[in-house]
Fold this protein.
Amino acid sequence: MNFRDELARIIARDPRYSIEAYAFVIESLQQARKRKLKERNRSRKAQKKGRCETGMEVSEPRTGHVSGQELCEAARRLALARFGRLARLVLRHWGVESTSDLGEIVYNLIAAGDLEKTPNDTRSDFDDVYDFDAELAPRPLGN
């Protein structure tokens, strides 16, 4: 079965969110992973400079895992970059009303076997990360 067919099954079980919402969450996850990798590389470069002074080396995990909060932040950035003043309206049209909805989508993908979670991950990691209306509301022009 291909991924699109799997998404159709997920949506049949939970029709609250459109296929576009799932695609958006997956893209947000990819963006969060890229951002984390860039931050990790910057940290390594800084550690190499600092290692000469301390003589110690700190190892970092090499996982592509991102937290619920990191994914929500990536979704916020992506929505604003892609849809600008219409971000809130577009996400609402797809059934996404809050960061909790992002978590529901992620956990639907986990239940289907398309994503994995760590033992420390919980569904509540996505609750109230930020207020959609405040963070994605259209801003007055010129501000």
About this structure: DSSP finds six helices and no strands in the chain.
